[in-house]
Amino acid sequence: MPLCAGTKRDGGRCATIVKPPQTHCYQHDAARAGERHRAASKAARSKPGREIRDYKQEVKSLIADVKAGGQDRADAAVMLQGYRVLKDFAELERKVKETDELEARIEELARDIGEDTKGGRRWGTWNGG
Ligand SMILES: [Zn+2]
């Protein structure tokens, strides 16, 4: 299995297995650095953020319609309940996404630490106990 051609911060060879024709892992692929950055910082929030803005706009116009008398109040109440459910789903989606991303990052870190400690070094005791 081919290994990533990248170098770790400590100068050691990256031990991540890559699938040809790829030569670098996700972590070391310079071409994907931007993508990586975006994935970490923005993508997690952008879609739910847009959805929430949409819902907010729709709820606002619904409220305006009720105020203006152009919308049945009972229907509006049911619709608002629906928006509440959608909001819950958006929150859940965001949490799942965050958890997935954290898991992926933890796996990467664990892999790096695992290689760094191959020579017998183990997890140190925090603060010496
Ligand atoms: Zn790598």
- Find the count of extended strands (DSSP E, 2+ residues): 0
**Structural class by sheet pairing and helices:** mainly alpha
The percentage of residues in β strands lies in under 5%
Distance between the termini: 41 Å
What is the tally of helical segments?
Answer: 2
> What is the average of the pLDDT values?
81
Question: Which cofactor or ligand species appear?
Answer: zinc ion
Topology:
Blueprint: H1 33-68, H2 73-116
Helix pairs in contact: 1-2
The structure holds zinc ion (ZN).
Please tell me about this protein's structure.
The protein is mostly helical and 129 residues long. Helices cover 62% and strands 0% of the residues. It has helices at 33-68, 73-116. The mean pLDDT is 81. The protein binds zinc ion (ZN). Zinc ion binds at residues 4, 6, 14, 16, 24-25, 27-28.
Short note summarizing the structure:
The protein has about 130 residues and is an all-alpha fold. About 60% of the residues lie in helices and about 0% in strands. The chain has helices at about 35-70, 75-115.
